[in-house]
């Protein structure tokens, strides 16, 4: 790949990256949302509450400041494995395609993710985008929509009821979790894994949750539902960024069995949505196993769209070993 330099993006690249995003949208006969501007991108990537991680490609013979490709991602979290990375956008200009630019952009991002201690890297691809599917499968990603039947959902904040009513006994309180709550949150994470028939999946512990959440870490935040001093539910979340703008990933939502059907899940989601609106966000993103029809009905009753069923979006995943193999392949 002589003559092409891959480097981490800078705030001064935001306008050029946005122009490439517009170019990609035009090629796909779509348009970017009106609320997404290069200023929003700059704030999301390099502002006080930065979300975006990006790398860019540039050729030596192009004009100074011109870019030939980019990859956008953001940090995330999984309650089973801990730190994660999510690839949200990858684009290379036509003149630089089939030269290995996309592969090297992926490799640089994967190296950064490994250096940050990430154990998983996810991305979404449309089932008709064969070129991208072949690229990521070659790099080691697995289509977990096919292998495990994960479906990707989206829910607009505007379709949600922000005010919720509690229908059970006691006096509920929904609040941000503190470090002292993480032992109880970990117990509920295990309960959720048991419910999803994946009892052995959680590989982290309460100490990991403490170090990766505020005030020590910035990988995720968590709201908890408390009734008379007992934690009975939690919602794990973190901000996202894509061509749809700022969003909130609802990584985990769980309410103990005896307290379901009383509005606690809705109250937890409403708190996250309110946080997202303050950040300029517009939507939730989350994934659900297709057999979990009860949860799917809960989300769809709120207006959620099953992007996998309706538009063919697939969830791809690099596990830890695949991430490291991808990095080693180009060193």
UniProtKB/TrEMBL annotation:
| Cross-referenced SUPFAM superfamilies | Acyl-CoA N-acyltransferases (Nat)
Keywords attached to this entry: Acyltransferase, Transferase
User: Is Protein biosynthesis set as a keyword in this record?
Assistant: no
What GO terms are given for molecular function?
A: N-acetyltransferase activity
Task: Identify the residues that the record assigns to the N-acetyltransferase domain, covering every copy.
Answer: 4-165, 172-328
Domain of life of the source: Eukaryota
InterPro entries recorded = Acyl_CoA_acyltransferase, Diverse_Substrate_AcTransf, GNAT_dom
By sequence similarity, the record places it as follows: Belongs to the acetyltransferase family.
Q: What is this protein called?
A: N-acetyltransferase domain-containing protein
């Amino acid at each position: 790949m002589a003559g092409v330099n891959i480097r981490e993006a800078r705030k001064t690249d935001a306008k050029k990256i946005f122009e490439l995003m517009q170019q990609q949208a035009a090629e796909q006969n779509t348009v970017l949302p009106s609320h997404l501007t290069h200023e929003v991108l700059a704030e999301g990537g390099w502002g006080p509450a930065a979300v975006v991680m990006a790398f860019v490609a540039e050729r030596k013979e192009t004009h100074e400041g011109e870019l030939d490709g980019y990859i956008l991602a953001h940090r995330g979290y999984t309650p089973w494995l801990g730190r994660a990375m999510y690839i949200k956008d990858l684009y290379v200009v036509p003149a630089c395609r089939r030269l290995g630019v996309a592969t090297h952009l992926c490799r640089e991002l994967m190296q950064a993710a490994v250096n940050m201690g990430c154990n998983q890297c996810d991305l979404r691809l449309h089932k008709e985008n064969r070129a991208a599917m072949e690229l990521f499968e070659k790099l080691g990603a697995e289509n977990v929509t096919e292998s495990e039947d994960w479906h990707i959902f989206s829910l607009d904040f505007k379709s949600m009821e922000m005010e919720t009513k509690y229908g059970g006994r006691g006096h509920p309180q929904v609040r941000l979790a503190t470090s002292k709550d993480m032992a109880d949150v970990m117990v509920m994470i295990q309960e959720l894994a048991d419910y999803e028939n994946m009892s052995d999946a959680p590989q982290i512990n309460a100490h990991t949750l403490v170090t990766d959440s505020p005030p020590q870490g910035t990988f995720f935040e968590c709201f908890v539902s408390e009734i008379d001093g007992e934690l009975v539910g939690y919602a794990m979340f973190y901000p996202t960024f894509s061509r749809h703008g700022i969003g909130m990933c609802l990584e985990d939502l769980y309410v103990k069995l005896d307290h379901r059907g009383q509005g606690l899940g809705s109250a937890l989601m409403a708190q996250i949505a309110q946080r997202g609106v303050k950040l300029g966000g517009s939507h939730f993103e989350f994934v659900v196993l297709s057999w979990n029809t009860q949860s799917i009905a809960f989300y769809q009753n709120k207006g959620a769209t099953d992007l996998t069923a309706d538009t063919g979006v697939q969830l791809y995943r690099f596990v830890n070993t695949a991430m490291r193999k991808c990095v080693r392949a180009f060193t």
